[in-house]
Amino acid sequence: MHQRGVKTLLVEAISVLPYKxxxxxxxxxxxxxxxxxxxxxxxxxAEANASDLKPAQWSALRYLAxxxxxxxxxxxxxxxxxxxxxxxTLTLKTLVEKGLLCRESDPxxxxxxxxxxxxxxxxxxxxxxxxxxxxxxxxxxxxxRAQLADILTELMVSPELIPTE
Length: 165
What we know:
Blueprint: H1 6-14, H2 30-49, H3 55-66, H4 74-81, H5 85-97, E1 101-105, E2 113-117, H6 119-124, H7 130-138, H8 142-156
Antiparallel strand pairs: 1-2
Helix pairs in contact: 1-2, 3-5, 4-5
């Protein structure tokens, strides 16, 4: 797969954090935990950047692989990715040019364009850099995964994190 996995990158990154990661759970500050989450994201992005695709392109492939057909549009992906349709249009255009996606006009409304994974796009997902993180999460066990899911979901809907327009 990739030369260095997310776990290796994270261990290296944690070793230079300005916070004591080895503190007991009770002593870890919110700031230190936030930094750990950011560092984890950076590690996944570093692995993604080591491939031929950028993190936003990987996100687009994952999104389109799982989205309902009606949500496979640049506007729907932009909303999901919390970015502009202009940015998403460039990302999707690049993936079409690489042969990983194809554009299809909606039969009912020719102005509407939907995107589908090509066979090459589906095959690319086999090397998705997010898989190494998913494997680490899988190793946590069912109860820890459920707790992690609850915590991350709660953080995602936190009013402080919801973008305002």
